[in-house]
Amino acid sequence: MGVHEATYAAALLFWYAFFEFLLKRLLRKGRQAEDRPLRSVAWNAAILFAILCVGTSAVLTPGMAALYAGFVALYALLDIPGALRGTARYGAGTLERFLLKQFLMGALLFAVWRIASPVAAHPWYASLETHFLEMFGSRTAGIRAHAALALAVATAFLFVVDGGTVIVRGILAKFPELYRRVVQSVQPGDREENVGEWIGVLERIIALTFVLTGNFTALAFVLTVKSIARFKELEQSKDFAEYYILGTSGSMIVALGAGMAVRLLFGL
Length: 268
Fold this sequence. Notes:
Blueprint: H1 3-30, H2 37-55, H3 62-85, H4 94-116, H5 123-136, H6 138-145, H7 147-172, H8 176-186, H9 195-212, H10 219-229, H11 231-236, H12 238-266
Helix pairs in contact: 1-2, 1-4, 1-7, 2-3, 3-4, 4-7, 7-9, 7-12, 8-12, 9-12
C-alpha cells in the first residue's frame, strides 16, 4: 500500500469519525425537540457528504464524489428508522444498533477506498505540498510520512469519546433495574451531561493515551485513582459496585480496543 493510499484510507475514517462522534453530537445538542426527523436526517447526510468531499479534496474526483453520495445515502437510510421512532439515545437495543451501524459504515468506507484506489494528488495540492517542503524541509516530509498514523490516532480519540459513551451506556442498559436504581440515587437531573459521563470520557482518553504509548502498566493508575474517589460508594452499596464494575470495564475495553487496533495496523 502506497503512502497516498494509506493516508486516503485514514482520512476517510477520520472525517467520518469527526462527523459521527463529534459534529453530530454538537448538532444534536443545538436542536430542540425535532418535529421533522426526516429533515434532520437529510441535513446530517448533506453535512457528511460535504465533509468527506472537503476533507479529501486533495485527491477528490467525480468518481469519488459519486461513491461518497452512495455511502451517505446508505448512512441516511440506516438513520431513518431510529429518527421516525424517536429512539432514545441510550436504551434497549442501543448497543447492538450502534455496533452494527459502525461495522457496516466501516465496511462501506473500506469498499469506497478499494474502488477509489489508487489515488493521486491534484496539481494544486502537489504544488502546495512542495512549497511547504521547501519552507520547512525534512520536518514536513516526516509529517507527510506519518500522516496516516496521525489521522488514525485522531480517529481513535474521537471514537472513544462519544462512541465509548454510547457503548458504555448500552452495556449498562442491559441491566435496566440496576441502572435505574443507581442513576436515580447518585446522578439526578440531566443524565446525558453528568459528572459520571465526563469522568468516563477522561478515563478513556487517558487510557487510550497509555495504550498508544505502550504504557500498559500505567492503566492501573487510572483504575486506582477512580476506585479511591468512589471508595465510599463501593463499600456501602452493592448496586453501585456492580454499576461501577460494568461501566469501568466497558470503558477500558473501548480504550484498549481502539488503541490496540491502531498499534496493530501500524506495527507500533
